[in-house]
Amino acid sequence: MSRSPEVRLADVDDPMLERLLELAQLDASADDVTPPLSNGTGWNAERIDWFLAYHRSAAAGLEGPAAEKSWAVLCDGSPAGAIRLKLTDAETAQHETAETGIWLGRSYRGHGVGGAALRLVLAEARRAGLHRVVAKTTAANIGAQRLLTAAGAVLTHDDGGAVCAVVDLSHWRQ
Ligand SMILES: CC(C)(COP(=O)(O)OP(=O)(O)OC[C@H]1O[C@@H](n2cnc3c(N)ncnc32)[C@H](O)[C@@H]1OP(=O)(O)O)[C@@H](O)C(=O)NCCC(=O)NCCS
């Protein structure tokens, strides 16, 4: 990887989805990428089916039935992970808030790729007219908390170890 990798977001069409799945299985833990499904923490058929269905339903974007959009994170042109936005108030007349989530392959972590991808997705959210972007993580996930704080999020910790992050886009500068 170059010292200052070029980071871009790309739509997840079927060829990109295949490349993302390969990356996820080879270079990320299933728990970083999918919800806990079936027994065990590793990759299994149910998690792969979830991964494919999830990105296909998110292809229609924030205005689509899933009210969600996912992008491949490209690092120097290669898929490095994925990032998403999902409206949390899709049922209301005015859409103001979306939740984000991100995972990167292990070999792409720690080089500023996550921070750059998050800034790009916040810019997408602002272009879509949203007012805030939220994210959930855990007290144990120091990397995610640092990433979110560096992007301008305010973090709130609850007693159960959950951490909620809020980026107010009216005060956010790229
Ligand atoms: C969280 C994740 C996306 C971070 O991506 P990344 O490219 O490694 O992050 P960056 O290199 O852009 O670092 C952003 C900031 O977080 C810090 N950071 C990143 N990983 C860290 C870690 N494991 N421990 C401590 N700090 C960390 C960096 O030092 C940097 O801080 P700074 O801006 O104050 O210098 C990546 O580690 C990942 O995919 N993790 C698994 C999935 C996950 O936890 N997703 C988050 C769910 S909200």
Mass-distribution shape: globular
State the total count of DSSP E strands. Answer: 7
What is the CATH C-level name? Alpha Beta
Q: If you compute it from the alpha carbons, what radius of gyration comes out, rounded to the nearest whole angstrom? A: 16 Å
Strand order of the largest sheet: 1-2-3-4-5-7-6
Number of helices: 5
Major sheet attributes: 7 strands, mixed
> Which CATH architecture?
3-Layer(aba) Sandwich
Helix-strand makeup class: alpha+beta
Number of domains: 1
List the ligand species: coenzyme A
> Into which percent range does the helicity of residues fall?
25-40%
pLDDT < 50 stretches: none
Measure the end-to-end span: 24 Å
Domain N-acetyltransferase: 16-174
InterPro entries: Acyl_CoA_acyltransferase, GNAT_dom
Pfam family, one: Acetyltransf_1
Protein name: GCN5 family acetyltransferase
